[in-house]
Amino acid sequence: MLRETWLIFQRDMRLSLRNPAWIMIGIMQPVLYLVLFGPLMEKVVNSTPGFPPGSSWTILTPALIIQLALFSSSFAGFSILMEYRSGVLERLRVTPASRIALLMGKVLNNAIQAVVQALLIIVLAYLVFGLDAPVGGILLSLVIVALTAITLASASYAVALLIKSEQAFPALLNAVLMPVLLLSGILLPITSILAPNWLYTISRINPFTHVVNAERATFRGDFTFGGLYVGGIVLLVMAVLAVWWGARTFQRENA
Question: Which of 87, 98, 187, 242 is the most exposed place for a label (fewest CB within 10 A)?
Fold first, then answer.
């Protein structure tokens, strides 16, 4: 299975490297937030109580790379729809390759792309805005980004194979991603001081709130249970469930 996963990963990575511009296009929105929203955030953080510990850049930068993984990986299902329409998926079905290998090869490609894009955002924040974060925390944050990408890409492939509609797929994604984005505290942290009680309670139900909090904790070097491990456990559970769902959908569609 490992060999088959590697072969699928190589194939998808070669296709991605033929269009490297998409990597830069994918990070344009986070870069704009960093450049145009970051300076405003800096003044707000310094003058408003209730924000998480750390500077504005250790609050905003990790949230933006989670946003990057959230959107880029969620739309990964478009590629499987293209392969489904063009007959590529049908050709893969007749091979003896493991169905979970077909999935994992693709999601690993999505994870590598998310990590590369996250690194570009982090380097920009370091060089231009003076981001100060521990190296160990940065490395751990990239692991969180990779797991987030694996989770969302697996779910995206499963949804795409179930819907099989290029028109319905983006509409469904936008309907789901917008509340997830707003309730996860990516742009503005949702804390008990800043948010009304009902909004704070709803945000706790959103699992990506805990993932964003864990990512912010790595940037400030907070490796406590409340800071890092709650979000890490939530993300690990989501990753396992998403990969299981994606693999089961691949097996069912290829039966």
Answer: 87
